[in-house]
């Protein structure tokens, strides 16, 4: 089967997908053909291999497609080898190299605002629901297989093995900051304290806007990131009142408002996991390689959310919870 693989047979896969009138290609790689070509033009020089007289090299287009298909389905390398007619060892190397290339060319897709005006732009998107909110923080456990001789280092409270993705998300469900690779046994608060984001927050190097009154009041209120109870209370971190509170109480109303803002980070994780289903299954890689897979998914998430051609393919209308007049409208997905 591998010996019969030629450049023509590999090209036939793309020809058949592109010829389908039902947009099968978009479902195959989770993006439009135009964005696939754009991505290929950027990563191609990094993943292209030199031809030899012994065998034709696997084209960069096929290498990228293999990687995107792995991220989209989470299928094992042995399963993918029947589709692409290449050994699982070759697929393993291709995925590793392509993920590294994607991280390099898309690294600017995830970045923190650099000045006060950019932070205020983020705040304006939340203003109708939660004034002075700059974004939502949360952590996600990405399941992985138990590592040899790792003991309980990656064993989390869900009784599975994982690495942690810590993220800050804006109102458009895009990541502004991602930290990947902490061991699953560490709590969200512990992961946050070890992150670059917390260090910048402690050293006042995020260039956040200065506290201002919420209305005509003369009390200055800081700008905040919203989080759940796992995170530490901080002048720039707002979390819910702990415990149970009666219906109609100030604390319960505050918690409801805060939760309506926090859905952006939950939705971002949900959409990314639904579209890149490698995050739905235990990743059978070493932690450092699994971290690159997760980071590649996060960067692709932002790339596709910001794309005019692929946004409706990646997260169509009704796919994400929305906030209307301060109320959460569930997507139903």
Automatic annotation (TrEMBL):
Its cofactor is a divalent metal cation. It comes from the Eukaryota. The keyword Nucleus applies. Keywords: Hydrolase, Metal-binding, Nuclease, Nucleus. GO terms for molecular function: hydrolase activity; metal ion binding; nuclease activity. Residues 138-302 form the DDE Tnp4 domain. Its main location: nucleus. GO terms for cellular component: nucleus. It is found in: Nucleus. Belongs to the HARBI1 family. This is DDE Tnp4 domain-containing protein. It comes from Parnassius mnemosyne.
């Amino acid at each position: 089967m591998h010996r019969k693989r030629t450049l023509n047979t590999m090209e036939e896969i793309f020809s058949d997908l592109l010829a389908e009138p039902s947009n099968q290609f978009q479902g195959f790689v989770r993006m439009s053909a135009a964005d696939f070509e754009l991505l290929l033009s950027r990563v191609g020089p990094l993943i292209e291999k030199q031809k030899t007289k012994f065998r034709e090299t696997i084209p960069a287009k096929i290498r990228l497609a293999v990687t995107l298909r792995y991220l989209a389905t989470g299928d094992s390398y042995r399963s993918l080898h029947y589709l692409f007619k290449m050994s699982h060892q070759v697929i393993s190397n291709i995925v590793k190299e392509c993920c590294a290339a994607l991280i390099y060319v898309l690294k600017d897709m995830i970045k923190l605002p650099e000045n006060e005006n950019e932070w205020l732009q983020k705040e304006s998107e939340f203003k109708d629901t939660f004034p002075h909110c700059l974004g939502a923080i949360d952590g996600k456990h990405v399941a992985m297989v138990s590592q040899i001789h790792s003991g309980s280092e990656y064993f989390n409270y869900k009784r599975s093995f994982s690495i942690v993705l810590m993220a800050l998300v804006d109102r458009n469900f895009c990541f502004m900051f991602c930290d990947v690779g902490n061991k699953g046994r560490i709590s969200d608060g512990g992961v946050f304290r070890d992150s670059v984001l917390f260090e910048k927050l402690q050293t006042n190097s995020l260039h956040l806007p200065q506290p201002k009154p919420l209305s005509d009041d003369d009390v200055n209120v800081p700008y905040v990131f919203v989080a759940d109870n796992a995170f530490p209370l901080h002048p720039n971190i707002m979390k819910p009142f702990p415990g149970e509170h009666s219906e109609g109480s100030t604390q319960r109303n505050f918690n409801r408002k805060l939760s309506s803002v926090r859905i952006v980070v939950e939705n971002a994780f949900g959409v990314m996991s639904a579209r890149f289903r490698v995050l739905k299954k235990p990743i059978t890689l070493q932690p450092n390689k699994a971290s690159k897979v997760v980071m590649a998914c996060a960067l692709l998430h932002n790339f596709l959310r910001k794309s005019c051609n692929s946004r409706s393919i990646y997260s169509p209308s009704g796919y994400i919870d929305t906030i209307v007049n301060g109320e959460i409208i569930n997507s139903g997905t």
